[in-house]
Amino acid sequence: MVIKNIILTLFIFFMPLCLFAQTAIFDEYEVKAGFLEKFTRFIDWPAEVKMEDVSKPFVITVMGENPFESVLEKMYSQVSIKGKKVEIQYISTVNEIDDCNILFIPKSEHYRINKILSYTKKKPILTITDYKRFAKNGVLITLFFENDHISFEINKKAVQDSGLYVSSLLLNLSKVVNTEEN
Amino acid sequence: MLYKGTMWKTENIMKMNFLNIIVEGDDKMKKQFAPMLKAILALIFLLSVLPICIYAQGKTIEGMTIEELMNAKVVTGSLTTLTKLKIPVSLTTITTEDIAVTPARNIADLIEIYVPGAIWLNHTSPRIGIRGVIIDRNYKFLMLVNGKNMNQKGMQGAELELSNWDLNDIERIEIIRGPGSVTYGPGAIVGIINIITKTATTSNGVSIGVEDNFAYNSKGGYASLGFTRKDFNLFVHGSLRYTDGYKNADYFAVDQNTGTAGYLNTSDGNGVMPIFGDNLGKPQIKLHFDMNFFDEWRVWARYTNSDQPALFRQKMTLAAGEKVPVWFTGQKGIVGVLENNHSFSENISLKSNISYKSENHYNYWVTKPLLHYDEGGFNSPHGAGNIVSAFSESEIFLSSIINISQRDEKYKYALGASYSYNIYGPGWGNNKMYMLSNDYKIPDGRYIEDIIADGFNTNTISVFSECNFEFHPLANLLLSARMDKNNYSKYFFSPRIGIISEVEKNNIIKLIWQRSVRMNTAEELYKEHLYNTKANPEMLDCIELMYSTLPMGYCLINVSASYNWGEMLGFVYDPATIKGETKPIGNLEYFTAEVEAKFKFEKATYGINHSYVKQISWENATGITSQGISYADYNFNGLVSTGNDLNNWANHSTKLFANVELPYQITLHADGQFFWKWDGYEDVQLMYIAKYGNNNSAWEILNDKLDDENFAGTDVKLNLSISKYFPQFNSTISLYCINLLGSKRYSYSTGERYNYPSRVMWVNESAAFGIKINVNL
Fold it and tell me: Which A residues in the span 117-146 are in contact with B, Cβ-Cβ below 8 Å?
């Protein structure tokens, strides 16, 4: 009888506690993939890109080694960006950077980061990386770890050069880096 | 009336009322249904937390706002996890966090709590069973510390680390379920237990702790120091533990001649031996030292001892009137290892180590109460004293592995070789070895014991190789092979072929075939040498299909199924020729299936797994009529085969655990193990029923008693702990309870051979409360 009471007491004790104890833990690159679409909500591309033309896809390009594995395909087969279907491209040479809208540059590109950014400079391409050193080189948005969460910083100078318009709402959420200061 | 399966008799089911049974049921009903009630309540308790937590995880990344995404907790190193999933084995990892919150007396308990299907039974000390295979010595799996084999090769297998109460120096324990001799060496027939110790980088600073387990009157403490400087890391750990053991336990035993049965503690004036107590008041001591320097060098050394009386025995009164344990065993050992891991380039590295290990082992069975423990044994011929075995085993071991990979690591190759020189001699401080017990004679008429009293040596060489071809994520081919040769054995060959396929991100399918071998113990090898024979090694073939998936960042699911077959060996003694010989005792085929799910949230971790092991067939070898593996092909003393299950095993078992962080830095832990029925034990009862029919009143009484005691029925173990962290002192206080509901701890059965089932033995393990205090400075 005593044992039964102990168990039932613990059972009752545990249940409500569990209800508020939970917060999910997510995979690093699933969250990073999620950020790509969230950023586009706060960014406007110049008119020449014709973002309103929904017959053309929104192109996300990953340069070099793909750290997302198949996450991007999985996520963006269901999600559209700015009303457009999303196309995922993987490229290995700078010459292949073409009419992409987002270019993700992983750490593997450290040896040619300046070459890549020279190519994208003053083009309406949203460059994103998760290698913090690239922020100084002029990548527009850098994702980084901070206390088990992912934050981001924006290179304001690089944004101005690109011709993209970034909402102040997004700037307020980010840390701001200025290439010139660095 | 003789019957089996009382628990589900129709009339009892009709009377069944779970909520009132404890209060209103008669005594017999209480006994019959109490385990079932315990199981249901515990299962509800543990399962309740799981669906609630899953339900709470509704929001997807796609559905989040950018602010929510910024607040999402992220687990890093998913690729590392993925790499682990690609390992061609079924692996369970017990982390230092698990160890800290889990009420466990020793590593044997931890394994039973976390490893799907794993159990431990008593036979002088814990005997570990993995995937249906368990035997009276722990030599069918390997016990490693930091990858170094700690098994006693001479006789017993894994003993040293299993029974030590101190778990505070362990960073994690990796348990491979299934064969693995191709990688880890002969002996890994059914599993590998690898203890990874803490280092200065994982445990920096000073930690001290004390613990008191009230029921076992076990008191001890430890201190650790982790120190890091550039190019130099140092970690030292020491612990001391005094344990009286659980006294006045209820041991159930059956008299082999009369069939009378009952609890020893209530019938014998001498009392019974305490559970997990120290022998003769000698405490357990553990010392560990680990130093890393200049990046590629590491030196570590370790001393461990664990002595304990065997369970299920009444005490013996010595001539001086002292009541002492009648049977006790112990081992202590030291090991020192120098490791070097040198990279010649990005793609070529060489890993080498040299080690020295020495272990002292003794096993006393006090059959001559007028003698002191070790009196007579060393001086009288042929086992006239109280010593079953007493010897030391020392080893010098060298190993080197060269790893070569392509720049993109799509093709990897490893080649290695090792050499071990083993010395078997008198125990530490003694002048005569006592290893080959019993009066075995070799063909020239001399007794073996006289020949090897001063000891003997063996040499073992091994070469091993592994190729990994990653043609495509969908097709990763793994080829491995290993050859071992002892100077008293034949050549042993362990091959493995594996196909590992990453179907899509975080979805891995593995198909592995491998053959694992076990080299006979040095005791057996040397006997074979004296008899001018060489036995084949024990071999187990296994085909295993595994699927691992990380469907969400917080959830890991593993599913595996394996088909296993092999020829089992045993040491068979022939009283007619006074000759013992290692020979095949039968062919075994069995199937295993395991499902495992783990959920890791920010403030909670949950795990659930289920294991199913089913013997497909067992066939005795020619001339063998009895053994401990299965009763499926039995013909001994009027006992004939029945059932088709593995002896000493519960075919179905379910395990759950939950760690929940609450406000005020309180952590709750609960774990439960559910052994749904000990199918092999049930076969014992059926075999005696078949033998006696309705014509043996002693058996009828015994059989009813076994039913009353729910022998072979559902067995539930539930452990709980609550821990409070005090940040101002960087300290944690934990209160815990081991076996809250009480449960049976069965003894390993070597097979029934008498008029009544004298191998039917268990101890009722009662609830044991304790407190732990840890401070990090």
Answer: 145
Q: How far apart are CA B412 and CA B404, in angstroms?
A: 6
Stated length of chain B: 777
Query: Which pLDDT belongs to residue A27?
Result: 76
Provide the whole-model pTM: 0.79
Residues 6+ apart with CB under 8 A from A31: A150, B61, B69, B72, B74
Residue of A5, A6, A15, A23 to mutate, testing the B interface (most B Cβ within 10 Å of its Cβ): A23
Q: Give me the residues of A, 60-99, that contact B with CB < 8 A.
A: 67, 69-71, 74-75, 78-79
Residue of B47, B55, B60, B70 to mutate, interface with A, max A Cβ within 10 Å: B70
Distance separating the N- and C-terminal Cα atoms of chain A: 72
Average pLDDT of chain B, as a whole number: 84
Tell me what percent of chain A is helix, strand and coil, each rounded to the nearest 5.
40, 25, 35
pLDDT band at B605 (very low <50, low <70, confident <90, very high): confident
What is d(CA A31, CA B552) in angstroms, rounded to the nearest whole number? 11
CA separation, residue B252 to residues A135, B96, B266, B680 (Å): 72, 36, 10, 18
**By CB neighbour count within 10 A (0-12 exposed, 13-18 middle, 19+ buried), where does A23 fall?**
middle
Residue B9's pLDDT is what?
35
Please give the biggest Cα pair distance in chain A: 78
Phi and psi (nearest 5°) for A31? Answer: -65, -45
> Are the beta carbons of A14 and B550 separated by less than 8 Å?
no
| Residue B563, C-beta contacts closer than 8 angstroms, at least 6 positions apart | B542, B543, B544, B589, B591
Half-sphere exposure for B339 (CA within 13 Å, toward CB): 18
Output b/e per residue, B644-656; b: 16+ Cβ within 10 A. bbbbbbbbbbbbb
Amino acid identity of A8? L
User: What's the rounded Cα separation, in Å, for the pair B696 and B706?
Assistant: 15
pLDDT higher than 50, residue B310: yes
CATH class of A26-177: alpha beta
Residue B23 backbone phi and psi in degrees, to 5? -80, -45
pLDDT of residue A12: 47
Closest CA to B290 of B336, B333, B334, B332: B336
Which residue type, as a one-letter code, is found at position B288?
H
Tell me the DSSP string of B460-473. Answer: EEEEEEEEEEEEET
ipTM of this complex: 0.82
Please give the DSSP secondary-structure letter assigned to residue B138.
B
What are the DSSP calls for A138-182, one per residue? Answer: T-SEEEEEETTEEEEEEEHHHHHHHT-EE-HHHHHHSEEE-TTT-
Residue A153 φ/ψ region, left for φ over 0, alpha for ψ in the -120 to 50 degree band, beta for the rest: beta
Per-residue pLDDT at A78: 80
Domains of chain B with CATH codes: 6-776 (2.40.170.20)
Distances (CA, A) of B373 to A96, A114, B189, B307, B327: 83, 80, 35, 15, 10
Give the whole-number percent of chain B exceeding pLDDT 70: 84
